Amino acid sequence: MELREALFNYLLRIGDSSLIAGQRLAEWVSNGPTLEEDIALTNISLDLIGQARAALSYAAEVEGKGKSEDDLAYFRSEREYYNTLLTELPNGNFADSIAKLFLNSAFFYHFYKALGKSKDQKLSAFALKSLKEVTYHLRHSGEWVIRLGDGTAESKKKMQHAFDEIWMFTGDLFEMNEVDENLIEMGIGVDLNDLRSDWNSTVDEVLNRATLKRPKDEFMQTGRLNAQHTEYLGHILSELQHLQRAYPGLKW
User: Fold this and answer.
1) What is the mean pLDDT of the chain?
2) Which of 92, 113, 172, 184 has its CA 20 to 30 A from that of 102?
């Protein structure tokens, strides 16, 4: 596999995960449990969409076909997206969304720390900038996990149920293929096996403080590396892409 092809796919994974996570969180706008949290989730959504723009813009440059970040966001089907499965799951209740945000943020916190050492200077700079934002995302969601898990009987029940329901999708975070192997060999990509223990430590620390039980690693759902997704991604993209597909080239 050529470097350009591998790097393009790698950037799509990063950009797609940020875009879909941001789109999901945007659904909380005006629906947050408090005004302060409504604003916080909106700001996190904007951070993620900003990260998606940067990654997809670089991906378009690497592909070299004259496309823009908008082309990659709006004119690919779900079988051309490589986001983590965790990001596309429905928001559910507030505990569900916090659990998703926490697990995803914990992964990208350690991922961006490692990617900041990449030999690709653009990728390294992007990772270090994104790390500052994801550090806040992780702290914010982790505090909510602890608050709800060690709160009332009802909040604890909902927080535990949220982790139990989505845990099987966390295995997808650490899947790798030849794209990863090639970029790791070149000093560009990140070996996800090296991140797993750090991710486990971060997750376990927060779950312990929240008096929650870590779900068992039993059946773990994967598929993103082959652009295989849950039934939810197509619905997200139909909303995200509607205007550009209905009126190609539309600008505000």
Assistant:
1) 96
2) 184
Reported pTM? 0.94
CA dihedral 39, 42, 43, 47 (to 10 degrees): 170
Half-sphere exposure (Cβ direction) of 207: Cα atoms closer than 13 Å: 20
Q: How far apart are CA 47 and CA 130, in angstroms?
A: 8
Q: Report the domain count for the chain.
A: 1
- Count of Cβ atoms closer than 10 Å to residue 70 Cβ: 16
Per the CB < 8 A criterion, the answer to whether 195 and 111 are in contact is yes
Per-residue confidence at 251, pLDDT binned at 50, 70, 90?
Answer: confident
List the domain range (segments joined by +) for residue 114.
3-214+222-246
What's the alpha-carbon Rg for the chain, to the nearest Å?
18
Q: What pLDDT score was predicted for residue 99?
A: 98
